[in-house]
Write a structure and sequence with these properties.
Length: 234
């Protein structure tokens, strides 16, 4: 069973809880650094725990080898590293694009909206208008929370923010309110949430969901960015 006690309700957070980064990508998928390089950098920065959360799809076959290397690197560096995976949502029921080996309970699972299921096809967010994309991002974010397959809802609103520069705060409130009623953590993601972090903070304090801090780092300079962002607010 994977530890989850570092994921707390927002109002229980203390400054001391801000030494983790629970969303990172390595050379196992599209990140620039190896697991070892990431762990060494995180350790130097004073992080006490990280989660490696490389991308998976249903047909991914690397997961067991990845988990073993994480175990080795954790031993070598003395840094606690959780094995996690980020998978996209593939249905309105909140099912994720996960291989059978990877699952909640055994790993830290981030469910995210990436390419979107639309009329029987998978559509890249860039090919969807702003209004449609944020409607879909709301729908599938709520599906991830209600589907119960993920520990963490990854970068809520991130596709619309990344492509169109913003996301409806009314929708964000619906997402955070729904997280508040359940046990899916809302991720504070420094790659996408920088421009709306104050609004997010205010909604988190109102609805008190579980929260997770993630940099979504794909390169060295991004590691721990989520902590720098939260540190200025807490
Ligand atoms: Zn993502
Ligand atoms: Zn990611």
């Amino acid at each position: 069973m994977i530890k989850r006690q570092f994921i707390k309700r927002f109002r229980n957070l203390k400054k001391d809880d801000l030494h983790v980064d629970l969303h990172m990508h390595s050379t196992w998928t599209d990140g620039a650094l190896s697991l070892r390089e990431i762990a060494k950098t995180a350790k130097k920065m004073g992080l006490t725990m990280i989660a490696m959360t490389d991308h998976v799809r249903k047909n991914s076959t690397y997961c067991k080898d990845y988990e073993e290397e994480i175990g080795e690197v954790s031993k070598e560096t003395g840094l606690e590293i959780l094995t996690g995976f980020e998978a996209k949502v593939v249905s309105a029921k909140g099912e994720l694009d996960l291989p059978p080996y990877c699952r909640r309970g055994r790993h830290l699972i981030i469910g995210s909206v990436h390419s979107v299921p639309m009329k029987g096809k998978t559509v890249h967010p860039k090919d969807i208008s702003r209004d449609d994309l944020q409607d879909l991002e709301l729908k599938y974010s709520l599906a991830i929370i209600k589907g119960g397959k993920a520990d963490i809802l990854g970068h809520a609103g991130g596709m619309t923010i990344g492509i169109y520069g913003g996301f409806s705060l009314v929708y964000l409130e619906k997402i955070i309110r729904t997280c508040g009623k359940g046990d899916t953590a809302f991720e504070i993601n420094s790659r996408y949430h920088g421009s709306i972090i104050r609004e997010i903070w205010e909604l988190l304090s109102r609805y008190n969901p579980l929260v997770s801090f993630g940099s979504d780092a794909h390169s060295k300079s991004e590691i721990g960015n989520c902590i720098r962002m939260a540190d200025s607010l807490i």
